[in-house]
Amino acid sequence: MYAEVLRLLVDDYEVGGVSVEVLAGYDGRSFGEAIGLRLLAAVHSMVLSGTAPELAAFYPSVGGTWDPVLGWEAFEQVLRSRLGEVRSLLTQPPQTNEVGRSAALYGGLLHLVAAVPLPVRLFEIGASGGLNLRADQYRYLTDGASYGPADSPVVFDSAWSGQVPSVDLRIAERVGCDIAPVNPLTTDGALTLTSYVWPDMSDRLERLRGALKVARDVPADVRREDAVSFLNALELSEGHVTVVWHSIMWQYLRRTDRSAIEARLQELGGQATESAPLAHLRLEPHQVITHDRGATGWEYRVDLQTWPDGKRRVLGRAAPHGQELVWEA
Question: Is 80 exceeded by the pLDDT of residue 31?
Answer without folding.
Answer: no
